[in-house]
Specification:
25% helix; 14 strands; SH3 type barrels; five-stranded antiparallel β-sheet; 3 domains
Length: 252
């Protein structure tokens, strides 16, 4: 090994690397770096490091760069070799996403939720695909696995995200087995006393208009708590509403 090769840190011309700049870069040459008179850890003129002259091969999304022959220089200390196994894992992940998106496009093409004469624009289709991909990521992050067609058909969260709303930090209370998003979003919900009841069970669970299950935090003040998240709700005057802070009260 010659004196300069030790600063190349095992890199070779032609290697594909990640560096300070976004995308995937190929090393085209090395440039030796020498200490100047202001250097405090080496003598002036002594070789101290190397940097790589790089050519952009692909953007972060693996598409071709907009400008052919884009070149940069970067210290080898800030470069890391792109490993084949990592790219294979990314490919497998993308293939799985494509399979799920293909399933979703099948749902769209059947127009299960719209009139057969209604067609989506290109921008609407792209928006729907983007939302669907984020929904898949959310499921995987929460260990829910890849969805079945039934999961897609009946997902209240997917419907929420398609409407432009974000997933909540905590899962909301349920109403008749479906997420009660209106309540979790802070809406003031009227309880129709003629057919919507407040039911207290022997084990302390409280159901409000088929929603919950809650428990009393303070029955005297009409404050309920949803145990899975710890969020509190005020039941007062025929309404239920999420307590955003301790000063927030329905009708207060």
């Amino acid at each position: 090994m010659n004196d300069s090769s030790k600063f190349q840190k095992g890199f070779n011309i032609g290697d594909i690397v990640l560096c300070l700049y976004p995308g995937y870069w190929q090393i085209v040459s090395f440039e030796r770096c020498f200490a100047d008179s202001h250097c405090t850890y080496a003598k002036a003129g002594e070789e101290i490091s190397s940097k790589a002259n790089l050519k952009l091969l692909f953007k972060e999304d693996f598409s071709s760069p907009p400008v052919k022959g884009t070149q940069k220089s970067c210290s080898l200390d800030m470069c890391s070799l792109v490993k084949e196994q990592v790219i294979k894992e990314k490919l497998a992940q993308k293939c799985n996403e494509i399979e799920n998106i293909t399933q979703f496009l099948g749902v769209i093409s059947k127009n299960r939720y719209s009139n057969e004469n209604v067609k989506l624009s290109i921008s609407q289709i792209r928006y729907a695909i983007g939302v669907f991909a984020r929904w898949i990521d959310f499921r995987l992050l929460n260990n829910q696995g890849s969805p079945s067609s039934a999961d897609i058909d009946h997902s209240a969260l997917l419907e929420r995200m398609l409407s432009g709303k974000k997933p909540l930090e905590h899962a909301p209370p349920k109403k008749f087995s479906y997420p009660w998003y209106e309540l979790a979003d802070g809406e003031k919900i009227k309880i129709n006393s003629s057919f919507e009841k407040v039911v207290e069970k022997d084990d302390g669970e409280v159901s409000v208009a088929g929603g919950g299950p809650f428990k009393w935090h303070s029955k005297e003040e009409g404050i309920l708590v949803y145990p899975p998240s710890g969020e509190k709700f005020l039941l007062k005057g025929g309404y239920i509403q999420k307590i955003q802070n301790e000063e927030s009260r329905v009708g207060g």
